[in-house]
Design a protein that fits this description.
Elements: H1 2-26, H2 30-39, H3 47-54, H4 63-73, H5 77-80, H6 91-97, H7 99-109, H8 128-131, E1 136-142, H9 146-149, H10 154-157, E2 158-168, E3 171-183, E4 189-201, E5 206-213, E6 217-224, E7 235-243, E8 252-260, H11 269-272, H12 287-294, H13 298-309, H14 320-327, H15 336-345, H16 357-369
Antiparallel strand pairs: 1-2, 1-8, 2-3, 3-4, 4-5, 5-6, 6-7, 7-8
Helix pairs in contact: 12-13
Length: 380
Amino acid sequence: MDEIKKAEEEITKTIRKNIRLLMQRHGLVLSRFCEFLENSGEKSFHRSTFTRFMNGKVGRVNIAFLVSCCYVFKLSLDNLVSEKFNPDENVEKFRETYREALNDAAVAREPEPDWQGSEIFIENPASPLLEKYMQTYHCYYHSTVSSENASDNILESLISGTLDIKPDGRRCKAILKIDTKKLDSDGKPDYKTYSGHVVLCPSVQSVNCILTLPEGEFCFIIFRYSHLNQAKQECRLAEVLSISSKLDKRCPVIHRMLLSNEEIRKEDMEIIAPHLWLNSTEILLNDKGMSKLAGLSEEYGRIVDEAIENKPEHMFRLDENTVEKIAEKYLEPEELPMFITSLRSCSLTKRYNKVNRIADQRMHDVLFRRGYFQGTSPSS
């Protein structure tokens, strides 16, 4: 029995290797190879099963599939399963039959990554997994310019724009258009436009936008994926890795971004702003903040009073520049970096930031109560 199993494994490896050689011979990526078989009308072929087979997730394919390969690519069955596979068998006959389709494949092949057509990385807009995420999102985030971010005026602090996710051939395209709040030479609003593509990773439940500026800048947007059967995705909190906006102080920056398929009204900007901070379950407030919260309503005041009865820890909020100037009085210049290191090691700063399901749901619920997303059921 072990010998039979070993023989089956060897044959499977040979078939997998031969199919890859066949794809290489005709310049086809995995998704394009699947299209040829699907267009042949072969009913025994299932793209997902074949993708898993080529990725080593499925141990075998049925004989009907092999016969389909032979029919479409003008091969003999003996050749397809042979250890001495000849991918040139009847190659001219195949190319004559599918000349137009092959020309299309040659045009599309250049931008496609090696994992195109994979079940692990999905970017084909025809995928039902991506369908509910393709739309125009209104996006909002706090400015990455320190002076703008320090403003108490939320409308000054928040930056807005749109993220358009749409089909682009066999890939999913993303265009991020940001309002810089400046005017161009013609006196019109000046927009910063990134473009790139979208990749869904179902195994880790993430949607990834990989964007670039022609001038030479990357921007990465990642948000949580959940499968939707009917409604479009309404809103998501995303984590963004980009470059800070101030021209003379460009540096890597991480921030949050709200994506909403409905535009947020100006009067609701103060509602969304706190959700765009790098929050965690541990909330830090000073006495001024506690007093402000308690003064918003009688009920809030009672909540604050009871929370104080639980004896929350008192914290010290220190400005690094101020502490460093004090330290200069007592330490040598070469000792300052180690002091700041020790100071940070004693702090309670979070070691990472994440957007989980609860953060997404709270943002959605707040907007839902303000009248947004009333036409569809809440997103999960």
